[in-house]
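Researcher: Structure for this, please.
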Amino acid sequence: MNGSRFLLPVVLSATFVQLLNVTIAQIAAPAIQSGLGAGPGAVQLVLAGYTLAYGCVLIAAARLGDRYGYRRLFALGTAVFTAGSVACAAAPGAGWLIAARLVQGAGSGLVAPQVLSLIGTGVSPERRPRALALYGATMGVASLAGPLIGGLLVGAGLFGLGWRAVFLVTVPVALVSLAGAGLLPRTRGPDGQRVDWAGAVLAATGFGALVLPCALGRQAGWPWWTWVSFTGAAAALACYARTLRHRPDPLIHPSVLRDRTARRGVLLVFVFNAGVPSFTYLLFLHLQSALGYPALSAALMSAPFAAAAVLGSRAAPALSRRLGPAALTAAALVLAGTALALAPLIGTGPGRRAALLVLAAAGAAFGLFTAAVFALVLAGVRGAAASSVSGLLPMAQQLGGSIGVTVAGLAYFSPAGGANAAFGHAMAYEAAVFVLTALITLRLRRRVRPRAPRGPAEWRAGVRQVTASMAGRALIPGGRPTRGRRR
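Model: Predicted structure, token format:
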């Protein structure tokens, strides 16, 4: 297929910079706050706005790719992301920066489902397992590299740019991806695909109305509009769920609501991600704001977490095959224990040295959980629900991260007897989230059992189903994905 040689470098470079932007801004948050004179609520919107827009656009982006072509949507999304990155670097104030982050997130949301669709239609079956492995590794490396790259850029102060450099660093790579988009294969989904615009608007409205008051409510003193927003979010999402079965081309198949494993799997990913992004965010915030660490030193403090996460992810396939969901339970409990252990250590010099070992244990557990959870959840979902769950899991990931950063911030900024006590409150929140995660995995274990390794034919069929469903392509009643065609 034309362009297949360049497909992975192009789409993985775009994936890298877009996921890098989720974490790279965390390390620059204190510098952004002081440089723009922004309040904590505005800084939280800078962080949450990216994933907010990403999740809202992702709802309809997969179906748009099916209808208009994956290459076209990939190029459009990359262009929007690049423009948003330049606007972030040029932001004169907090309002501008928040708006630019929303543009960045929207561009990423347009690109993300097209990457999986392009891999599924443009990579040969024998090369597809390696391509998907590289895709997963790229996601992990990008998330872990963000704080380190951000700390280097903010600490170096290149050309006097300060925090603005963390947004400019992604522009050259994004431009290379945009230039390479012309080499990608011209494919799209089957004919007859329609976009459920009413459903997309309802879901995006509910999502946005939920995150906005969480980000701004504490600083504003929880005025009346925050509660109106929460009520509107509940109404929009409930309306969307109740009308699913009556829609001719629903973005989410109604069978998801009836499948216990599907519901528990989505809840599991949501709860887990309500802890992990906020864990690293609060660690960086405390090290810089309370303990006076420079950005680079704070980033290096997290290096054991990042390095051990790579090792944990490498061990995940073997452990998940052997232990099944019990591997997730163990990882969640390790994370809960490390959160509780970190709280008393971080307040003293000797304790911070011991904290490096604790962070390494947490990183290994994080790598194991994130590398295994999607496959284990999908293993227990059958029929048409599998297609929607594959798309809902990344949605739950983004929503959980947005809500978690906000709620963890509330725990950290609540009245406390000093900065270390405040950090203790935040780590107690993290431990509670991870214990709840472990409890959900116990419920999941009743429905999911470890399976023997698949033979080549069965494995390839499973990959086709997962990649097709994550891209939003329809599944015919027999459960076999309809074949994408050239455009």
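Researcher: Any notable elements?
Model: Residues 449-487 have pLDDT under 50 and may be disordered. The radius of gyration is 21 Å.
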